[in-house]
């Protein structure tokens, strides 16, 4: 967790007494010696030998990297002893440790005489204790490596001025003196003194202070306290709105974040066991005192406890999540935590922003308007060139005015290193919409020429609340006036006093503020109802084609109108500009921007027009109905009870959803389609009541248009309140709140820093990887269920019954405690681990999403499969094989029933013990061999082994299964066939038929399970299906 501090050192001193507080107070007091916030920007630039316009030069950067080091924090101390202790005593480690001590005690001093088998069992438990610690250490190293590789794949990048041009550099290469360009969504890579900020610049310091309210950024100091002033940007904080320019003053451990980081881094089986103890204490100890003595009781207790604990499960769980995260990483899907992988399997709704998420965020202007006429980009270029040539340099036409607003009301910049390339190949730093408009403006004439004639003096950056951007400009030459205004307006423009307000944004927000428009000849006319209607029609046509529509406008402002004086504060100036932007604007033109689509997704949450959102949704397959079957808000009735939420109503994709009936009235001439679709705007959504939200969430396909961040957040919460597990995808600053609120936040690698920070998962390349990620999430859950179904029959159920029959019915314990431990910790553990490599079954995405409230990892269906089906078959067949062998060798079952260790008449004790050891080994082999076939049966939950073979099919195979089976066989041979071990642990070799007979039983188990799966596939709603795990 990121460190959080209270800025006032005096509060720290008052809170506690003692040396640690003194050290912390002294460290924080070091900030009082810093004066970066109190000196002037000119003095800062002089001290750091840098330039606010051109930045540092390459040789300066190299020297400062050598002097200050890379901009990274020192790693915290490792605390190796605590870490090693954790490896040993997490999971089932304490039980293994205590169990081994108890078994050692039962060997000596309690054992009279000491039993070598107990000593061997204790040694094996100690060995398993060390093995699981070693595996924990390897797993920690492996998962840390995966997470570290994910971090390196998401390097922080920032935009700086170097060698007089903008350059993108990795944050670790920032040095003091670098001039940093900051925009909304950026995370500050170091401590920065602001040289210039926009009026709406705000920074989120919650990572350091815990305060939820953002602070405004200013160029002037607002507080003598370095940690409180608004002119300092601290490393790790986010710019959530606005823009700015700053100079780096501290990097690495010298930053506030680095200094604080240094401070923070200073130095059910129980019931079964109780049952066994109670039976021994109240009955067997009195009536059969020689049957189970104290050492035997201890060994039985340890055996039952470890038998009931699936020792391989923690290994399998961690391995499964780590392996899956690694596989997702190779597919360019990065999960920030292992828990994210598992939660993905329960996702029932994916909400997605459109721009940059559904689309490639590579925008191009396709058409524009002058007056009320539509013009293609090619015609616009040709018209501009011919107009300029035929008029002898006269720039009096609407296209030049459109070019000027597009180029100057624009926060993007060409990358200096690519200026010599063709326009379509040049790299542009900035927002995708600004990039498209900058290319458009450049295609009509050099933007650098416009910026030479006009100088910016105020900027209001675009944000999702206002949905427009403003820049005010002062002219520096008559040529600039000719490019911006028609002749009549240019004549009355006062260069020393007047300013040109340029504005761009959403037409539905700005067109109502326009009172004039620029005609095709460049002259300004009153915007009457006819022209307004024509503009609306053009806007709707473009939106219906899935294009983003931007309105470009202007207005001339005089100093007298603004009331600007030297004492006017930036806040007052902004308020005046906003007031003048509310009316009297001149509509210069509309532009249509096209953004190519990414792959399809199920549900859309977007900030574009309803028609644009609907068109995009239809293009990418989100909406499958024709336009006449797409409902709107009128289909949601207000009265009536709130319908019950339907957990199946919003699934991963339309093709995966069963038909759902929405609570609405279809048009009278149409029947209700099997898949229901609806489109709503953000303002319409805010009028919905609970009943209407209930109806809305039952639709299969939903498109929200023109939504603000607050509305996106509400969508997520409304869906969550109806038992949906929501994944939210986005890439912008305005997506961050909903990314945090969603069960899974998904950001794109190309998105803003703040979106990536807020997300749980990052897509580096294709958006289609979302479906793969959900598939892997479901596979993790599936594979863990398979692991449990594999471990429980032999490692729990079949091991428990020999102890129960021994205690209750006086039968010999037909499976020795030692061999129980071997099954749990060796023969079953390897196969359980390799099950995590199982690939998805072909129907995994066709199932309904897992319900977090009702679908458990271990439910009654799984217990029925593990105990009621496989467990009973394995237990009964193992008992049968053991007692059948005893009967063939003169020890009939009736001579053992309720005998509590009494020998049959005329039976030699040594012979009796030897045959019991043989029977125990047979029971063990029977379980080991049958588990091989159980392993093959539980690989799939619904599909046949022939549909999902373990080999010879690259799409389904898991070749790790066969080494795991071979390992189990080797373990059986090791403990049963080595004479030296036979003497110590009381095992013997097993007749050959007792390897083949369990194989026949295993085939029967496999065939019975194949029959069960066949019925399940044929009758998916039948009784067998309801009992299926």
UniProtKB/TrEMBL annotation:
Occurrences of domain Cation-transporting P-type ATPase N-terminal (ranges): 35-108
Keywords: ATP-binding, Cell membrane, Membrane, Nucleotide-binding, Translocase, Transmembrane, Transmembrane helix
Localization in the cell: Cell membrane
Transmembrane segments: 87-107, 119-138, 269-285, 297-323, 788-809, 815-839, 860-886, 921-938, 959-978, 990-1008
One Gene Ontology MF term: ATP binding
SUPFAM superfamilies: Calcium ATPase, transduction domain A, Calcium ATPase, transmembrane domain M, HAD-like, Metal cation-transporting ATPase, ATP-binding domain N
InterPro entries hit by this protein: ATPase_P-typ_cation-transptr_C, ATPase_P-typ_cation-transptr_N, ATPase_P-typ_cyto_dom_N, ATPase_P-typ_P_site, ATPase_P-typ_TM_dom_sf, ATPase_P-typ_transduc_dom_A_sf, ATPase_P-type_domA, Cation_transp_ATPase_P-type
A biological-process GO annotation: intracellular potassium ion homeostasis
Membrane topology listed for this record: Multi-pass membrane protein
GO cellular component: plasma membrane
Entries under Pfam families matching the protein: Cation_ATPase, Cation_ATPase_C, Cation_ATPase_N, E1-E2_ATPase, Hydrolase
Record region (Disordered): 633-671
UniProt protein name: Cation-transporting P-type ATPase N-terminal domain-containing protein
Organism of this sequence: Cudoniella acicularis
């Amino acid at each position: 967790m990121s460190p959080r501090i209270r800025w006032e050192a005096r509060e720290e001193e008052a809170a506690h007494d003692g040396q640690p507080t003194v050290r912390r107070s002294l460290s924080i007091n070091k900030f009082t010696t810093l004066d970066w916030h109190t000196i002037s920007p000119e003095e800062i630039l002089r001290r750091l030998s840098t330039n606010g316009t051109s930045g540092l030069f390459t040789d300066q950067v190299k020297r400062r990297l050598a002097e200050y080091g890379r901009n990274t924090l020192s790693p915290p101390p490792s605390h190796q002893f605590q870490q090693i202790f954790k490896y040993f005593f997490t999971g089932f480690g304490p039980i293994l440790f205590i169990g081994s001590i108890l078994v050692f005690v039962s060997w000596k001093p309690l054992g009279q005489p000491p039993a070598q088998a107990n000593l061997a069992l204790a040694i094996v438990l100690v060995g398993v204790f060390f093995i699981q610690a070693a595996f924990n250490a390897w797993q920690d190293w492996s998962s840390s490596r995966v997470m570290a590789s994910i971090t390196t794949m998401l390097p922080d990048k920032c935009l700086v001025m170097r060698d007089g041009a903008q350059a993108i550099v990795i944050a670790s290469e920032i040095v003091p003196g670098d001039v940093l360009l900051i925009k909304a969504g950026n995370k500050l890579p170091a401590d920065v003194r602001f040289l210039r900020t926009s009026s709406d610049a705000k920074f989120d310091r919650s990572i350091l202070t815990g305060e939820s309210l953002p602070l405004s950024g200013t160029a002037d100091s607002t507080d003598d306290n370095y940690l409180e002033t608004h002119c300092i940007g601290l490393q790790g904080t986010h710019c959530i709105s606005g823009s700015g320019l700053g100079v780096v003053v501290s990097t690495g451990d010298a930053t506030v974040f680095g200094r604080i980081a240094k401070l923070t881094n200073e130095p059910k089986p129980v019931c079964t066991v109780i049952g066994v103890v109670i039976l021994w204490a109240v009955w067997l100890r009195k009536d059969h005192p020689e049957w189970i003595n104290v050492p035997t009781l201890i060994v039985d207790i340890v055996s039952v406890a470890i038998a009931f604990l699936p020792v391989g499960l923690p290994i399998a769980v961690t391995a499964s999540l780590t392996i899956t995260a690694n596989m997702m990483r190779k597919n360019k899907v990065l999960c920030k935590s292992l828990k994210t992988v598992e939660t993905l399997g329960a996702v029932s709704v994916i909400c997605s922003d459109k721009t940059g998420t559904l689309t490639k965020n590579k925008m191009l202007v396709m058409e524009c308007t002058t007056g009320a006429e539509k013009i293609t980009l090619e015609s616009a270029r040709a018209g501009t060139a011919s107009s300029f040539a035929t008029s002898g340099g006269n720039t009096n036409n609407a296209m030049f005015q459109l070019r000027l607003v597009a180029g100057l009301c624009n926060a993007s910049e060409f990358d200096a290193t690519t200026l010599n390339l063709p326009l379509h190949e040049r790299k542009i730093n900035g927002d995708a919409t600004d990039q498209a408009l900058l290319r458009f403006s450049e295609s009509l004439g050099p933007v650098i020429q416009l910026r030479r004639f006009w100088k910016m003096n105020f900027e209001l950056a675009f944000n999702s609340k206002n949905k427009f951007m403003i820049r005010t400009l002062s002219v520096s030459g008559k040529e600039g006036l000719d490019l911006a205004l028609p002749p009549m307006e240019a004549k009355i423009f006062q260069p020393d006093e007047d300013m040109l307000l340029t504005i761009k944004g959403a037409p539905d927000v700005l067109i109502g503020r326009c009172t004039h428009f620029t005609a095709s000849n460049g002259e300004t006319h009153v915007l009457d109802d006819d022209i307004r209607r024509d503009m609306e029609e053009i806007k709707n046509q473009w939106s219906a084609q899935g294009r983003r529509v931007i309105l470009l406008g202007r207005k001339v402002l005089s100093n007298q109108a603004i009331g600007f004086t030297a004492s006017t504060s930036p806040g007052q100036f902004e308020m005046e500009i906003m007031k003048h932007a509310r009316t009297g604007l001149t509509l210069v033109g509309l532009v249509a921007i096209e953004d190519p689509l990414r792959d399809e997704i199920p549900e859309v949450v977007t900030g574009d027009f309803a028609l644009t959102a609907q068109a995009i949704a239809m293009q990418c397959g989100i909406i499958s109905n024709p336009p006449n079957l797409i409902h709107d808000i009128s289909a949601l009735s207000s009265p009536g009870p709130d319908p019950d939420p339907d957990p199946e109503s919003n699934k991963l994709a339309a093709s995966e959803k069963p038909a759902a009936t929405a609570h609405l009235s279809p048009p009278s001439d149409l029947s209700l389609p099997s898949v229901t679709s609806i489109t709503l705007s953000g303002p319409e959504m805010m009028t919905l009541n609970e009943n209407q939200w209930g109806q809305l969430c039952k639709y299969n396909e939903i498109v929200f248009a023109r939504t603000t961040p607050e509305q996106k957040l509400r969508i997520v919460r409304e869906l969550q309140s109806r038992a949906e597990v929501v994944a939210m995808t986005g890439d912008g600053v305005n997506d961050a709140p909903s990314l945090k609120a969603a069960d899974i936040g998904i950001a794109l690698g190309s998105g803003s820093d703040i979106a990536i920070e807020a997300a749980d998962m990052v897509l580096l390349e294709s958006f289609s990887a979302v479906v793969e990620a959900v598939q892997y999430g479901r596979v993790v859950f599936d594979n863990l269920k398979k692991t449990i179904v594999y471990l429980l029959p032999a490692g729990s159920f079949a091991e428990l019954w020999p102890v129960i029959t021994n205690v209750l019915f006086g039968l010999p314990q037909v499976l020795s405690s030692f061999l129980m431990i071997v099954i749990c910790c060796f023969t079953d553990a390897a196969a359980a681990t390799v099950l995590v490599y199982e690939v998805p079954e072909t129907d995994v995405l066709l199932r309904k999403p897992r319900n977090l409230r009702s679908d458990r990892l271990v439910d009654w269906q799984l217990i029925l499969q593990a105990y009621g089906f496989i467990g009973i078959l394995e237990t009964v067949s193992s008992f049968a094989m053991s007692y059948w062998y005893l009967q063939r060798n003169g020890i009939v079952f009736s001579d053992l029933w309720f005998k509590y260790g009494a020998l049959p008449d005329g039976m030699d004790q040594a012979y009796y013990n030897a045959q019991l050891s043989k029977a125990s080994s047979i029971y063990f082999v029977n379980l080991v061999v049958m588990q091989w076939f159980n392993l093959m049966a539980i690989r799939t939950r619904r599909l046949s082994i022939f549909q999902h073979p373990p080999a010879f099919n690259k799409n389904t195979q898991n070749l790790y299964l066969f080494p795991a089976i071979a390992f189990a066989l080797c373990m059986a041979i090791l403990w049963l066939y080595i004479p030296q071990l036979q003497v110590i642990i009381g095992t013997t070799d097993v007749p050959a038929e007792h390897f083949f007979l369990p194989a026949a039983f295993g085939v029967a188990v496999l065939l019975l399970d194949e029959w069960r799966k066949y019925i399940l596939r044929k009758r998916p709603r039948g009784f067998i299906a309801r009992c299926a795990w």
